[in-house]
Amino acid sequence: MSEPTSAVKLIFRVHLIQINRSGADLTIRILLVETTGAKAVYEGLELWTKFRCLFDRLLSVDVTGEELAVARKLLDRKRFATLHGVRASPQELELLGFERVDS
């Protein structure tokens, strides 16, 4: 059985911006920008460890653990990192706590 139309997966570029550091963890702003179509933008604010858990719950992620490790190092050094190829439906993002901010 195919997914309902409302569960169509969109492709996002994920921008991670370090807000501050609390002990060994980072607070990051997460911007998910759709790379095709309507250019939807979703936003969230999380600790890095919670972001990793949320990210693991998205089953359609074409990002490896190594790419996440590189992103973490970039956040530590430059306070900014970008991930490509994240597939998610708007419903998944909203269930994970992201808010649509482009409309």
Structural description of this entry:
With 103 residues, the chain is an alpha+beta fold. The protein has one domain. Helices cover 29% and strands 40% of the residues. It is built from 3 helices and 5 strands, in the order E-E-E-H-H-E-H-E. It has helices at 48-57, 65-78, 90-95; strands at residues 10-22, 25-34, 41-47, 80-88, 99-100. A hairpin with a 2-residue loop joins strand 1 and strand 2. 18% of the residues are buried.
Short description:
The protein is α+β, with helices and mostly antiparallel strands and 103 residues long. It has helices spanning 48-57, 65-78, 90-95, and strands at 10-22, 25-34, 41-47, 80-88, 99-100. The protein has 3 helices and 5 strands; from the N terminus they run E-E-E-H-H-E-H-E.
Short key terms for the protein model shown above:
disordered N terminus, 103 residues, alpha+beta, globular
Largest sheet: 5 strands, antiparallel
Percentage of residues in helical conformation:
25-40%
Residues in β-strands, percent: 35-45%
Determine the structural class based on helices, strands and strand pairing. alpha+beta
- How many helical elements? 3
Q: What value does the Rg take, in angstroms?
A: 14 Å
Give, in order, the helices and strands. EEEHHEHE
Counted up, domains total 1
Shape: globular
Largest sheet, spatial ordering of strands: 4-1-2-3-5
First and last CA, distance:
32 Å
- Average pLDDT works out at 85
**Model regions low in confidence, pLDDT < 50 over at least 5 residues:** 1-5
Number of strands: 5
